[in-house]
Design a protein that fits this description.
single chain, alpha/beta, 6-stranded parallel sheet, 6 strands, globular
């Protein structure tokens, strides 16, 4: 079974796990949507960020543990996240690029210096043009850098959308079909 890691935004940090169901795939699952993935949605502590080094290591270890405990297809491990989780998605992928088959960062941002590590990873990023919380430039710069080096990456920009670019993204079944169209041949070769 494919695995999808979902990283929530800053507003869902804490110890109340029900907050994780506020947006994205967990919300849709709670509403009865059927996903062709095992979806895991960890919760970030209130005073931390997904992109912190120890959390990135912890996320990779979580994926490995779920793989060890469940019948996960090691060639179909994906990550997505929104806002703070979008930043975490970029950082996880840059740190462990062979672990994931594809990523969908939503209204987050990556550093241009990550481009070389991400070059071979399929990426579909989403951002609202009018986002004032995480400006569009945070996605645009890394996608531009990836395009320069021939990466399979793209950015969908929603016109007249501020920070909530996740509702349209996660409601779009094409996103999940796109993820499933990608596999990796060396998943734990990092």
């Amino acid at each position: 079974m494919p695995l999808l890691l979902f990283l929530h935004g800053a507003g869902e940090r804490g110890t109340d796990l029900s907050l994780v169901n506020k947006h994205g795939p967990p919300k849709l699952i709670e509403q009865g949507e059927d996903f062709p993935f095992v979806v895991i949605s960890p919760q970030c502590p209130v005073d931390q960020w997904w992109a912190m080094g120890e959390n990135i290591v912890g996320l990779a270890e979580l994926i490995e543990q779920v793989y060890a405990d469940y019948p996960i297809d090691p060639q179909r491990i994906y990550a997505t996240g929104m806002s703070m989780g979008g930043y975490g998605t970029w950082k996880l992928a840059a740190t462990y690029p062979k672990l994931l088959a594809a990523i969908v960062p939503v209204c987050g941002g990556g550093e241009r210096s990550m481009a070389a590590a991400l070059k071979d990873l399929p990426i579909w990023a989403f951002h609202g043009r009018d986002d004032e919380i995480v400006p569009l430039i945070r996605s645009q710069e890394i996608i531009d850098e990836l395009s320069k080096i021939g990466s399979d990456s793209r950015l969908t920009i929603y016109d007249n959308v501020q920070h909530d670019s996740w509702s349209a993204t996660y409601a779009n079944r094409e996103v999940y079909d796109w993820l499933l169209s990608h596999t990796t041949s060396n998943p734990f070769g990092y």
